[in-house]
Amino acid sequence: MPAKLSVNLNAVALLRNRRDLPWPSVVGLGRAALAAGAAGLTVHPRPDQRHIRFSDLADLRALIDDEFPQAEFNIEGFPSEDFLALVEKHQPEQVTLVPDDPAQATSDHGWDFPGKTAFLAPIVARLKASGMRVSLFADPDPLGYEQAKATGADRIELYTGPYGATHDDPKAAERELARLSRAAAVARELGLGVNAGHDLTVDNLPALVRAIPDLLEVSIGHGLTADALMYGMPATVARYRAALGH
Ligand SMILES: CC(=O)[C@@H](O)[C@H](O)COP(=O)(O)O
Ligand SMILES: NCC(=O)COP(=O)(O)O
Question: Which of 72, 176, 198, 217 is catalytic?
């Protein structure tokens, strides 16, 4: 089965927040993405609410529940007590835990699993007890995946930023793909599902899904939103689905 496409709406929210006006509509573009065949929506509410506002979460939850009940909501973030309260309130199907400092511009590394197993394990247990699937943001370095598994998480999300950065260097892209492929194989052997995200594009997706044939989900925001400005959201989702082999 091809990897599912979850459309990240952070960049839409960033554009909306330039003015004290409700457009572009985060819910409207989420609706357009789901109507065009996206399997889910992703948001990464940051503590300063610079893009997704905490008030967006109820609207997106209602969009999925009322109009697209098969779709999944994925909320990403650092598991502070405030973040955990947010996800417990809005009950996404999946929570992706990311080791981001509040001041960080964007996500740029995965968890240090050996150092953070004791921190993550009770959080994973708490979220799973509430019925949410838990995924952990991970560098494509399988040393430490045993500890990732030991936290009780269901999946990892492979950090693909370094792969995305090789867009003008095919040899470097091959090297990054080999790392991602090896890391995914170790995760799979340990019984962890594999998602991927960060700086994925319609151009770099086909090689990624060839390298990780059992990839479960990609979450894509920045590149997809740039394409949506050019082609419109429905056509863009169709292009990304085709790149995934749907
Ligand atoms: C975990 C991850 O890779 C994405 O959530 C990414 O961090 C998007 O966040 P920004 O949209 O704030 O850059
Ligand atoms: N988890 C990655 C994500 O949601 C989107 O990342 P990007 O496509 O905005 O880099």
Answer: 198
